[in-house]
Model the fold of this input.
Amino acid sequence: MEKINISEKLRTFDKYWQSKQVTDFNNQSVKLVKLKGEFEWHHHKTEDEFYLVLKGQLNVELEDDSVVLDEGDLFVVLRNRGHRLLAAQEVHLMIIEPKSTLHGETIKKEIEKTGSESTES
Done:
């Protein structure tokens, strides 16, 4: 295993909402993603998601609450909990989640295919 420079990895892409896997361990994916705007409501039936804000401010809306994450803050969305992400300005985010988690475009494609905003994975 070689060291990974997160800043360098973030410079390799500029599209929003497309996570890029940078490594994995113990059947977990470590991903980087750039966000701006909002993502649809969804949940993951069997997986928790770990979010670490590297740059910017992220609002995580939950079914009954919301959490504002600033640079350096981390938050875990527990499995089967509806959530959506909102980023007024560009956010750089590290996500750690099981490899099986549907994420990003995969969720959007599932929503388009099923017509449901509550995607299970």
In short: Residues 104-121 have pLDDT under 50 and may be disordered. The chain has one domain: 6-114. The longest strand covers residues 83-98. DSSP finds two helices and seven strands in the chain.
